[in-house]
Specification:
Blueprint (H helix, E strand, L loop, with lengths): L26 H20 L17 E2 L7 E2 L7 E5 H6 L15 E3 L11 E3 L2 E2 L4 E3 L2 E2 L2 E2 L3 E2 L7 E8 L3 H4 L6 E7 L7 E9 L3 E11 L6 E13 L6 E14 L4 E15 L32 E16 L4 E24 L4 E27 L3 E31 L16 E20 L3 E18 L2 E2 L3 E14 L5 E12 L14 E12 L5 E18 L7 E18 L4 E14 L8 E2 L6 E10 L7 E10 L2 E2 L8 E2 L2 E11 L4 E8 L7 E5 L1 E4 L4 E9 L1
Parallel strand pairs: 7-12
Antiparallel strand pairs: 1-2, 3-11, 4-5, 5-6, 7-8, 9-10, 11-12, 13-14, 13-40, 14-15, 15-16, 16-17, 17-18, 18-19, 19-20, 20-21, 21-22, 22-23, 23-24, 23-25, 25-26, 26-27, 27-28, 28-29, 29-30, 30-31, 30-32, 32-33, 33-36, 34-35, 36-37, 37-40, 38-39
Length: about 700
């Protein structure tokens, strides 16, 4: 546990997304691996002779994803559960914070720690998504407790979610899944956007997005995205100011070769929103009532966040011949951070609490590169796609660290008074952390008789981890891991396509157990059975899945100086999600999730319900374009239900009540160029606790944002 972290240790409208030892073997797993692996390889040999062919799409609803398989593949022909959010939806819901993106999708818990201006938080299928974030297929690093890469939603074209283990394509990854943000890119046609926003909590924003050919040429295109935003936090005396720039340039070097250069710069400056409150006064009653969600229990005059990051990279694509394409993504990123936080750590009596302090000052440098070859062969009965690749990640982070869980004088949480505080003069510790990963992977997709799809993948990774504190080793080491994945899908009549898939993941752990042994990587495996439905009467699709996801060799508390390893975290659940136009004017987005997550927290306490994760979640969003005389008026609204959750069982048996939130939107196209819009989140201003994990966190209050957009 890191005390001061927010967690202790069928229409063209749907074409927006176009382009050590492995886990324990089960007999069925071996059989399915062999079956799923041999069939595509046999198909590859059979289809090696190149023939002229055109890939058919059996459904008019064409949503293509690159995140699921690293190859452009229709979602309805992918034997894995995925979700996508388009730029249009981001605009309709006025999404200004990244962890709001997936609020209306299944399998995701968004903002379990409330509205945090230091980071974005997701839980995917019951697992923390802290290390699940990617942009343009390359990892966004989040290390050292607070050195978290930030994603600006104004700079995104779409967001894709792959649920379940993804190590076969992405290497080291948590079992829950991968969220991949797709950056805005240059466009063939000139276009421009200026957007102004104003809203509650003194929210002010101006965004500019300009794109098109350079000097009238059709082989060079550019895009410039810029944003300035400032707003107060929900907690008193907190605020943030952000500057964001993202230029890009695309060049057609030849008919077969193109390269896109992508850069970004982001700077946050302000007072962090530390929402740490204890169960006492939030979910538990007290003689003095409940704590106000806006109460600041820190030291606003001392706390500070100075976050600056920049990245430079490229995407290269080259067509070798009619069969093979070569693609490469590269990014270098750098982040500087100064973070000072004061928070409530534990109660001293019925009014007063002890507070703690966290201090971070440092930077990181990261290099990521992914190179892959894609081959396609066709015959009368088959379509075969082979992907082979190698990727490399290197992270170096150096920072001063100071944590004090018991610091300063007693603090009255019901009548906060600031200033009775002297910053500690004690020296912190110097941390040097590094992670270097080299992975080789191969994946084959075989489509047989326009009915069957077989998928098989194999990957091998070598990972070197460095962890030094004040120059002394503290649990580094090297690991080699091999992971597998496979799937089979039947493209049935009436748009009904059932599938079965198996996938694996691994996550290296830094540190040693109480006996001085370095931790092994935690390993995950998932079985998933699902169906994807794209009927001819619906301009959209519906997906449903049942999954069994287990991570072994997880860390658990032992009452000793460090965690022990060998526990399990298991997630079983059901998801259903649908997106589509039920009429020409009405679009519906609906989702339901059931998740039961069980954990081991000690040698004696096993198979307990995990904290933070609701068993039931449901959401519904409607977009309606008013026809006739009121053409140009668009109405939208949604409801989000999150079921009851528990505190982490290692801390308490506190129960967090369920809550239901309503959102609304109205926009009007004044002219083809001008649009006015108002969005309201938490329309009824519901006061609720979003989750507890030792600390408890109030959820977002009502927010109102108005905007005016000019397109040119």
């Amino acid at each position: 546990m890191q005390p001061a972290s927010p967690r202790p240790s069928a229409s063209s409208r749907f074409t927006d997304f176009l382009p050590g030892s492995p886990v324990s073997r089960r007999p069925l797993a071996i059989a399915v691996r062999l079956a799923l692996g041999l069939a595509p390889l046999a198909g590859a040999g059979m289809a090696f002779a190149q023939e002229e062919a055109v890939t058919e799409v059996t459904s008019d609803t064409m949503v293509v994803s690159t995140s699921a398989l690293k190859v452009e593949t229709p979602v309805l022909e992918t034997p894995r559960a995925t979700s996508q959010v388009s730029r249009e939806e981001l605009d309709n819901r006025q999404v200004n914070k990244y962890d709001e993106v997936l609020r209306y999708r299944s399998g995701v818990v968004s903002q379990p720690f409330g509205q945090d201006n230091k980071a974005e938080w997701f839980y995917i299928r019951g697992f923390n998504g802290e290390d699940s974030l990617y942009q343009d297929g390359l990892r966004q690093f989040r290390e050292g407790g607070y050195f978290w890469w930030s994603t600006e939603t104004f700079g995104l074209e779409s967001v894709e979610l792959l649920k379940g283990p993804a190590s076969i394509l992405y290497g080291e990854a948590p079992p829950g899944g991968v969220i991949n943000a797709i950056s805005k890119r240059p466009t063939d046609e000139p276009q421009g956007l200026i957007e102004l926003q104003y809203g509650s909590d003194d929210h002010e924003q101006v965004g500019v997005d300009v794109s098109g050919p350079v000097a009238g040429r059709d082989d060079v295109r550019y895009r410039m995205v810029g944003l300035f935003r400032e707003n107060d936090g929900q907690i008193e005396d907190t605020d943030n100011q952000r500057v964001y720039l993202a230029p890009s340039l695309e060049l057609d070097l030849s008919q077969d070769t193109s390269v896109t250069f992508l850069a970004s710069y982001l700077k946050d400056h302000g007072t962090p929103t530390n929402g740490f409150k204890l169960p006492y006064g939030t979910v538990d009653n007290t003689p003095f009532g409940k704590l106000d969600p806006e109460d600041n229990l820190g030291e606003p005059d001392y706390e500070r966040q100075e976050h600056e990051q920049w990245a430079l990279g490229y995407e290269l694509s080259h067509r070798l011949d009619d069969t093979w394409d070569i693609e490469q993504n590269f990014r270098y990123s750098h982040l500087d951070l100064l973070e000072r936080d004061v928070y409530v750590s534990y109660l001293l009596d019925d009014r007063n609490a002890q507070r703690g302090l966290t201090y971070r000052d440092g930077d990181f440098d990261a290099v990521t590169v992914d190179t892959r070859a894609i081959g396609r062969w066709y015959s009368d009965r088959t379509e075969n796609t082979l992907l082979v690749g190698v990727d490399y990640q290197d992270l170096d982070i150096d920072y001063d660290n100071y944590d004090d869980f018991a610091f300063g004088s007693p603090f009255d949480i019901f009548d906060p008074e600031y200033g009775n505080f002297t910053p500690s003069s004690r020296n912190g510790t110097d941390h040097e952390e590094g992670k270097e990963q080299l992975g080789f992977y191969a994946q084959n997709q075989l489509r047989l008789d326009d009915r069957w799809i077989f998928l098989a993948g194999l990957r091998h990774d070598s990972v070197d981890v460095t962890n030094r504190i004040d120059g002394e080793d503290n649990g580094g080491g090297s690991e080699d891991e091999t992971t597998f994945s496979g799937g089979v899908m039947y493209l049935g009549d009436y748009g009904i396509s059932p599938y079965l898939s198996y996938s694996e993941s691994f996550s290296p752990q830094i540190g040693t157990d109480p006996d001085g042994r370095a931790y092994r990587p935690s390993e995950g495996e998932q079985w998933e059975v699902g169906v994807k439905y794209a009927p001819d009467w619906l301009d959209g699709y519906i997906t449903a899945a049942v999954f069994d996801l287990e991570e072994s060799d997880t860390l658990y508390t032992s009452g000793e100086s460090a965690n022990r390893q060998g526990g399990e975290r298991e997630s079983q659940g059901f998801e259903i999600e649908g997106v589509g136009y039920v009429t020409d004017d009405l679009k519906v987005t609906a989702a339901y999730t059931y998740t039961d997550v069980r954990v081991d927290i000690s040698r004696e306490e096993r198979d307990l319900r995990a904290g933070l994760i609701p068993r039931n979640q449901a959401s519904l969003w409607l977009d309606y374009a008013v026809p006739g005389a009121l053409h140009g008026l668009n109405l939208g609204g949604g409801v989000r239900y999150v079921g009851e959750t528990k505190d982490s069982p290692r801390y308490s048996d506190a129960t967090v009540d369920s809550y239901t939130l309503w959102d609304a939107k109205v926009s009007y196209d004044i002219t083809p160029q001008w649009t006015a819009q108002v969005n309201v989140n938490n329309l009824t201003d519901e006061e609720y606790v979003s989750g507890c994990e030792y600390w408890c966190y109030y959820g977002e209050e009502r927010s109102v944002v108005g905007s005016i957009k000019y397109r040119f």
